[in-house]
Design a protein that fits this description.
This protein has 420 residues and is of the alpha/beta class. Helix content is 33%, strand content 23%. The protein contains twelve helices and 23 strands. It has a seven-stranded mixed β-sheet. Strands 17, 18, 19, 20, 21, 22 and 23 form a seven-stranded mixed β-sheet that branches. It is elongated and about 80 Å long. The relative contact order is 0.10.
Length: 420
């Protein structure tokens, strides 16, 4: 059995077949859909899994409780990769009570036509299962409007197990802990891409592959919602969390503080002094300009430099690195009297992430009609609103001595700004 601690079990599944998460983001190492089961006087399931995996999910549940009924299922997040099994679950457990907030149930009616057997909770409400007590923390827009988290904390002195306590105004630190631990079921927060390879708790595995995948997951999925993430962290600031049970990736125990620190830093858009250089190129001239810029930045003392061809590297990884590094330089040719398509797409994606505090430089090329530089300028003035560094470089046909010098100046200016 996959016990995490004191009758709290992992009952999630792995998806090693899907190639794109949400039809957008690459999954080279798959993804897990995590769900958890609390085996107490009242049995409580925390979240479900994508509907395609319902049968192995059901087998995991029955491995823990056999033929016992499930009393509650807590829905922390309504995205179908976590709520997709609810309708089938109700068929196997017809008396199960679905616990969520008002916005949860509005969505549930639309997705699955489930409108009965609902148990509505508000921020700070508590539910006793017997030895375990749950407390609900509403975290809207991390990263959907209905999202919430669930704390499993100390037992009640006189557990009732089937009542919701009156709503409290604040989330308080637990007065004690179940088996010496406080568990946070965090929904998508603190999650990452990557299937789980046998072990499911971080201290039982090598976590090296998950750190960059956590940054990529955050930047791709949650990145726009830095302010709501900060609000959620403040609600939990008084709670000493021993385990974080996210809906994707490992159960965090040994690395809890590191994981919280990563989310805190990313949600404040804090970044390292490094440079992302992205370019589009058709015949190599724009690429050669990018190489000149990178070399000049390196010679000026900047060590963290990554370069991407926007037509070759999936934008998921470029977005990830822009959350890691503070500097961005982009360049592309003019195409069809506009901006090269893949660069246009990337800038549109970046504009939707609401990234703050970045330094920005750009360059462009053309054969007979200049448009790339002016289009990138427009993107920055109207959408990105990053701080300009250096002067944009415009290259006609191919590099010459003057434009090489301008590219070098742009690279040096960015390095000096980042290292200042």
């Amino acid at each position: 059995m996959k016990e995490i601690t004191n009758k709290i079990f992992y009952v999630g599944v792995n998806d090693r077949n899907k190639t794109l998460f949400e039809g957008l983001w690459p999954l080279p190492n798959g993804v897990s859909y995590n769900a958890y089961l609390i085996d107490d006087e009242k049995v409580c399931l925390i979240d479900t899994v994508e509907v395609d995996f319902f049968m192995p999910f059901l087998e995991n549940i029955r491995e823990v409780i056999g033929d016992r009924p499930i009393d509650y299922v807590v829905v922390n997040h309504m995205e179908p990769d976590h709520s997709g099994s609810l309708a089938l679950l109700r068929q196997f457990y017809p008396n199960i009570q679905i616990v969520g907030n008002k916005k949860t149930f509005d969505m549930m009616a639309g997705f699955y036509r489930l409108t009965t057997g609902l148990c509505e909770v508000k921020n700070g409400d508590k539910l006793s299962l017997g030895a375990h007590e749950l407390q609900f923390v509403l975290t809207p827009m991390v990263h959907w409007p209905e999202t919430m988290m669930t704390l499993a904390s100390a037992p009640l002195s006189s557990p009732e197990g089937d009542t919701i306590a009156p709503s409290t105004k604040t989330i308080e630190a637990p007065s004690g802990a179940v088996g010496g631990a406080t568990i946070l079921f965090s929904g998508d927060a603190f999650g990452c891409f990557g299937a789980l390879n046998g072990a499911f708790v971080d201290e039982q595995m090598n976590c090296d592959e998950f750190w960059l995948e956590m940054t990529r997951y955050y930047s791709n999925i949650v990145g726009k919602y830095g302010t709501p993430v900060q609000m959620a962290l403040k609600k939990l600031a008084g709670v000493q969390v021993d385990y974080i049970c996210s809906t994707h990736g490992p159960v965090w125990h040994e690395h809890v503080q590191r994981v919280i620190g990563i989310y805190d830093r990313l949600s404040r858009y804090e970044a390292e002094p490094g440079l992302v250089i992205c370019y589009g190129t058709m015949y190599g001239n724009t690429e050669r300009a990018a190489e000149v810029i990178a070399r000049a930045a390196a010679q000026a003392g900047l060590k963290n430099i990554v370069m991407y061809n926007v037509s070759k590297t999936h934008h998921s990884y470029i977005i990830r690195d822009l959350f890691r590094y503070r500097g961005l330089i982009v360049g592309a040719p003019t195409y069809n009297t506009g901006l090269y398509h893949e660069m246009n797409v990337l800038l549109d994606e970046l504009s939707q992430k609401d990234i703050k505090g970045r330094l920005f430089g750009w360059f462009g090329s053309f054969s007979w009609a200049s448009k790339a530089v002016s289009e990138i300028t427009r993107w920055n003035e109207e959408k990105l609103k990053f701080e300009q560094v250096g002067q944009p470089v415009e290259i006609k046909q191919a590099l010459n001595d003057d434009t090489i010098a301008q590219c070098e100046a742009l690279g040096r200016a960015m390095a000096e700004a980042l290292l200042d």
